[in-house]
Structure formats: structure tokens, C-alpha cells
Amino acid sequence: MQSFQLGEHASTVPITSYNTQEWQKGYRSLDQEYDYWIDEIEGQIPPELNGTLFRNGPGRLDVNGQRIQHPFDGDGMVCAIAIKDGRAHFRNRFVRTEGYVAEQQAGRILYRGVFGTQKPGGWLANAFDTKIKNIANTQILYWGGKLLALWEAAEPYRLDPRTLETLGQEYFDGALQPSAPFAAHPWIDPASQFDAGAPCLVNFAIKAGLSFTINIYELDLKGAIVRQHNHPVPGFAFIHDFAITPNYCIFFQNPVAFNPVPFLMGTRSPGECIKFQPNKPTRVIVIPRDVASRPKPIILETQSGFVFHHANAYEQEGEIVIDSICYENLPAVKVGADYRETDFAALAPGQLWRFRMNLETKAVDRQLVEPRCCEFPFIHPAKAGREHRYVYLGAAHTAQGNAPLQAILKVDLKSEHRQIWSAAPDGYVGEPVFVPRELPGASGLYTQVEGDEDDGWLLTMVYDSQHDRTDVVILDAKDLEKGAIARLHLKHHVPYGLHGSFTPHYFES
Q: What is residue 5's predicted lDDT score, i.e. its pLDDT?
């Protein structure tokens, strides 16, 4: 194992912190599947940090040279970084979904994608073909002894947590029907009042039809679905994420319209048929988790905007407080556009906002918390649904404008203090995953905060465009400004990913 001197350079980075051509290099397929010990480490892995970081994202952005139109249509590739006793092991595997296997065998694109990918042959080859490939590319989670790769429009795929071998689709002993969606943003309630204080997993799904229905699922520690309830939703429901409290599930129904005709006629993908409606409000759907005593959702409205991700929510004196990344609008997915040519300066940034919702009066107040361009919020896992003090985010290097994520930002909601660690100008960061320093509970989960809420580490994957490789970077969550504790240099790049999770279970075969 090699060790090198750390060197930080954030303060010397120019105002224009990124190079578009260098940023684009992170959007290339990683065709090879690796399995090796990481032997080039800058700094030192904390000896108390033990477990496995799982991370999911689109790993293949073409099929035999035929380019995927948008990275969100790319096949899921799971990475596992197993850490123990100051050492780390890397492994990556593609999720062998039915569609992935078929396309690899055929050597060409066989399925339409949600965000622009079409089968070769023009509209005639795509008309009335509504079958969308399950790409299992958004989240990866270890729950109930099962490692699950999630994509919001279909059922999960189960993987072997040691080898990442695809074991097949997961239906939770028949509680989930074939082809039924199971969303990619579950929350773990650290102390569910419906399970005698034990943790439970809460997730949802959007079922489309003549109207839209939100399905709520709650799973016990064994991975069984123990509660399920459905709620019709008027209008089009384009919902990617949600939030929970001990008593509620909260959804932001973004103000968009969907015209299915171009999709059915084969000229556009579903994502290209969505149009943002700035003159309509965002609807907030608050669904009680205890449907026996409170069966009906509560509907509120707030100013028009678009939300992909929520940081957390909690209840306070008859109100629900929720921190979310909000955009002024949703830019249209343009037909034939090249996502690698994104004009960041022309787009409004995502920013962290706080919404306070009074369930009695239905009044909604919102306040800008962090104006810096940011995304991928993360909190201490034991604070899910409870009042939190710290939010960690991927962020732009500069304080104004829109830009690629090159920094990790810590927001102290109590003191309003900020800390930032930047990988600019050569580095481009992913989601920061918070790992508490304290040991998990008997369930193997982090269910309470034993010390300070920020006592732990942040793990993030950073594409280093100068060396054309990806680093796994470990930061001290208490003090980001001290710089990276360790940089684990991989032997290759990993395409920009989406979400990940950490488990204290150590998986290295």
C-alpha cells in the first residue's frame, strides 16, 4: 500500500472552475468489470471505518457503439468499496437485467428509453412500442439481508452483496407483483412507532393508468412488506423522491403536463413529452402512514417549482418542515440534444429551500436556505424523519450561478455556518454519503445519534479529469476544511453515478 502527502488547492482555483471538455470525459462507458485491492492511497483510511460503500449509476452509455441519448437511460452498474482495517477492495458489476442481457447478445439497442433513447429505424421502428427496459441504475441498498438495485419504474433486482452477481428480480415473497414499480428513493425510519420502535423501510411507487396512484410500502427488518396502501392522485404525477416523518409520507407533485401522443407515435420518448407549467402551483401531497385512523391525504399548494430530491422532513408543533433541492423550472428534454453539451450558464441552479407546512390551515411558507448550486443532499441516517441540524450536499465550486458539482458542502442549519471542500478545477464529485463514527445498533443500522450529529465521515466518488480516473474520497464530516483524510485512487474512471448507501457489513469475497 502506497501513501502520499495530501495537497489541497481549493483556494487557488479560478472563478471559472471547470472545463467543459474535461467534464465530458466522465460520461464514457466503463466496459470492464474489475475486482482488485486498492493499493494506491493518498492519506490514510480511518481504522474505525469498516463496512461497504455501494454505489449505483449508469455504467454503459452505448450499446456496441450505438450511443444512449441520455445518461438516465444507461444500464445500471453497481460499485462496491469494501473497507476494513485501513484497507479497501473495489468491485464493479453490471446489473444483468433482462434488457441488458438481450441487448448485449444482440449487439444493438432493442428498447426505447425514458429520456430520449430510441431504437434504430426511425419512428416506424418505435411507434406503439411502449415497453421500457428496466435499467436498475438509480440506487443500491442492503436491507433484510438482500442487496437491491432500484429503478423507480420497475421491480428491484437482487444482487449477491459479496460478488455483485445478479440473482434475479425481487418480489418480496409475492407482495410485489411482476412489473410493478418500486421506487429508487426509500427511507429508513430508524424507530417506527408501527413496529414497536424497530427500524422499517418506507418506499413508494407511482402506478400510471387512466389516473395515477401512489402506492406506499413499509418493510420490516426481515425485508417483508408488512404495510401497503394506495392513494389515487389527480393529474400527472412526475415524482422522483419523497420524504417521511413518523406519521406522514410527503410528496411534491411537480407542475408538469404529459402529452403521450408523440411517444405512442414513436417520435419522442416519455421524457421528451413532459412540459413544465410555470403558471401552475406545486402540489404537496401529505399521506398519513396510519391509514386506519386517517385514511385521506392532505393536499397543499406552494409556489411553482421543480423538486428532484429532498434532504429530510420532520414534524414540529403541528407543522411539517421539509428541506428540499428546488429548481425554478424543469428544462425540457429536447429531441436529439446532446447531454454532453450542457450550457450550465443558461440553466437555473438547484438550491436548498426549507418549506414549513401547516396541516390545519394548509399554509405553506418557503425560505431559501442555500443559494449555491447544489444537489444530492444527505443527512445522518438516524435523523430520517426527525429534526436535523446538518445537511451535506454536492455543490458547485463557486457561490453563484450554475455549474457541475465539484465540491462537498456542509450546511449547519442551527448556526448557519458553512464548510466546503472543493475538488476543482480537475475534480467532479458525486453524492456525499454520511457514515456515523458510532457503531450501529443490534439491527446493524444507525438508529440513534450517540454523540455529535456530525461525528463521522463523508464518502464520495470524484472523477479526476487530469488523471482520467475516479477517486473514492473520505472527508471528516466535522471539519471539511481540513481537506481529504484519504483519496483512494482507482485504476480507471467510473462514469458519473446517481445514488449510493453504506452498510457496516463488510462484503469482500
A: 32
Q: How far apart are CA 508 and CA 164, in angstroms?
A: 10
When pLDDT is averaged across residues 439-443 and rounded to a whole number, the result is 91
Nearest one of 71, 97, 85 to 338, comparing CA atoms: 71
d(CA 266, CA 160): 37
Greatest alpha-carbon pair distance for the chain in Å reads 62
Q: Cα dist. 25→90, 304, 489 in Å?
A: 21, 35, 17
Residue with cell 467510473: 494
Nine-digit cell string for 4: 502520499
Question: How far, in Å, CA of 472 to CA of 474, rounded?
Answer: 7
Confidence (pLDDT) at 391: 98
In this prediction, residue 211 carries a pLDDT of 77
417 marked ligand binding residue: no
Number of alpha carbons in the 13 Å side-chain half-sphere of residue 115: 19
Name the one residue in this structure whose C-alpha cell is 480507471.
492
Q: CB of 410 within 8 A of CB of 479? A: no
Contact between residue 457 and residue 444 where contact means Cβ atoms under 8 Å apart: no
Q: How far is it, in rounded angstroms, from Cα 78 to Cα 329?
A: 31
Q: What is the C-alpha to C-alpha distance for residues 263 and 269, in angstroms, rounded to an integer?
A: 5
CA atoms within 13 A on the CB side of 466: 8
User: Which stretches of 231-357 are DSSP H helices?
Assistant: 261-264
Which stretch of DSSP H or E encloses residue 434?
A: strand 433-436
| Rounded percentage of the chain residues whose pLDDT exceeds 70 | 97
**pTM for the predicted model, two decimal places:** 0.95
Q: Please report which confidence band the pLDDT of residue 10 belongs to, taking 50, 70 and 90 as the band edges.
A: very low
388 is an annotated ligand-binding site residue:
no
Beta bridge partners of 319: 316, 358
Helix (H, G, I), strand (E, B) or coil at 371: coil
Is 70 within 8 Å of 116 (Cβ atoms)? yes
Here the cell at position 260 is: 403521450
Structure letter (DSSP) for residue 281: P
Residue appearing with cell numbers 450550457: 343
Q: Residue 509 has what pLDDT?
A: 73
Separation between Cα atoms, residue 445 and residue 46, nearest integer Å: 20
Rounded-to-integer distance, Cα 371 and Cα 328, Å:
12
Domains parsed from the chain with CATH numbers = 2-186+310-327+350-503 (2.120.10)
